[in-house]
Write the structure tokens for this entry.
Amino acid sequence: MKIHQFPVGQLQANCYFAVCEKSRHTAVIDPGGDADFLVQKLKELECKPKMILATHGHFDHVLGITDLKLQLNLSYLPLFIHPKDIFILKNAALSAYYWTRQGKDIPAPIVDQHLEDEQIIPLDKEKLKVIYTPGHTPGSVCFYNEKEKILFSGDLVFQNGIGRTDFSYSNNDTMKNSLQKILGLPPETVIYPGHGETTTVGEERTALMH
């Protein structure tokens, strides 16, 4: 699996292309903005987008979805998200306007598929496993490629940091449980976070113990 990372939008959230190198089938993870740029990159890299995966519903991770789908104009490019974050997804444009004074009129994307814990998402010869990791939001998930030990963590964990739990719908206790679940993965697992640079499970396990 080949990974391409692109910080997008005003908050520079990481959008990822997870690409099956054999077929070029691609999962677009968290396209939070800059759809024009992402479409250009998909073409340059000869990617064949097959799905959009959202780690959670916050605007900086989802605001580019509607425009991306329109520009790609594919007959079927399903959006996957956990059902407990759909209410956040639907309010993403208003949240964007509140925080950035932009994006108020962007229509909410249509959800095609609901994610479930331990669901396996096939990407031609590759597989991504859904790990349900609530806390930052009620429907936060991570995507894990067990074969190559790759984890897309959304806003659960970053390099030397973890996601916020001060929203009304956040939960600090479930956040701790979710972190324990992720930190139990092999230490060499590479973490591709929602913001910032990559890290590993081992590095973050050490950082969170101090």
About this structure: The radius of gyration is 16 Å.
